[in-house]
């Protein structure tokens, strides 16, 4: 393999030389493992991954060579270098390089060092973590907050901490993996409903309460879904929960801080501040740090999760550096500068959506920092993705089972620091890659059909 994509590059793909497994199959094929060799039975996944990697069709595990800027240098997981417009980073307001954020981090290091050195259930709290809990509570108008080491830990931990085996979880079918993992680890009674389908949710709640009036029900959704960039009717969801004696958990990871005049996301836009039973979220999208939280109205729930929410209880607490960063990010989000950054982010997102549609792409969802550009068949999307590094684009391919089969897409992530020129460069490269890939995709199918015909004649 070459050391760099930045050498002369042909968009032609010699499809005759591509092994079938590089363009077919999915990660779901390797989820279930069988056999006595605990370690050896993972080898089929690696062989499939290597077939994709060898031919340039493995788009994951990229690394950046610098901060998440609108244009940056990166490497794929074989070490090949490329440089391009960056629509793959989750830094929605562009705060990762903000001078006040960096100054807050340095000051916290000088004062505390870099480590919390303990669980929040023991002695891992700091004055910064306590201040951050208060800041989250005030921002969401919910009195009590507990912090987690990651957003994933918050989603998993709040469900695992509160739900017991005989309880029920009714969950949107597109809910994040941390929520689904938490649900299936907590109870045998997990009920998925169609994405954003209120009537389907009502029917499931009716069926559950018709046969079970003794156990709890938790309804789980997101305020902004990360693959489709759409949002539920939170007012109606909370009303349904009250009607059927259920509780509502909303994951606000992707819109909190970066959507709405005050940055309160769709919870704020739908005038539900302080009215949602439980809100969880992540600091990793808008607030320039790792970490997550769960906020609620009950001190009893907060204290219970502190000692029974395993992913917080048995993990080191957020470091003072992380907490200081997020505190400063909340200050910026709540300032006039934060408002301007959100306006700029929305402008860039709307512009990108319009330019993609003008170039013939299927763009779904509502304007947000997430812009899903649907390509369709997995093989075609992999061909497009293979061409992007040499065309100067850093972007993330999402394919089945993270999205529906045949609905592979690029989840483009906009930052307030992007310019219209960055967007134009991205769209031009995507259109060029899609055109070249479509030609190869058709040839690939023609070759495959010819091969099947020869095999049929040989029988």
Question: What are the key terms here?
Answer:
single chain, about 450 residues, alpha/beta, Aspartate Aminotransferase, domain 1, Aspartate Aminotransferase, domain 2, 2 domains, seven-stranded mixed sheet, four-stranded mixed sheet, 15 helices, 15 strands, globular
Describe the structure.
The chain is α/β, with parallel strands linked by helices and 459 residues long. Helix content is 42%, strand content 15%. The protein has a seven-stranded mixed sheet, with helices on both faces. A four-stranded mixed sheet has the order 1-2-3-13. A four-stranded antiparallel sheet has the order 11-12-15-14, covered by helices on one side. Strand 7, helix 8 and strand 8 form a beta-alpha-beta unit.
Topology record:
Blueprint: H1 20-23, H2 43-54, E1 63-64, E2 71-75, E3 81-86, H3 99-112, H4 127-140, E4 144-148, H5 151-162, E5 168-172, H6 177-186, E6 189-193, H7 198-211, E7 217-222, H8 234-243, E8 247-251, H9 265-269, E9 278-282, E10 292-296, H10 299-308, H11 310-313, H12 320-333, H13 336-358, E11 362-363, E12 370-376, H14 378-387, E13 393-394, E14 397-398, E15 408-413, H15 420-458
Parallel strand pairs: 3-13, 5-6, 5-7, 7-8, 8-9
Antiparallel strand pairs: 1-2, 2-3, 4-10, 9-10, 11-12, 12-15, 14-15
Helix pairs in contact: 3-12, 4-12, 5-6, 5-10, 13-15, 14-15
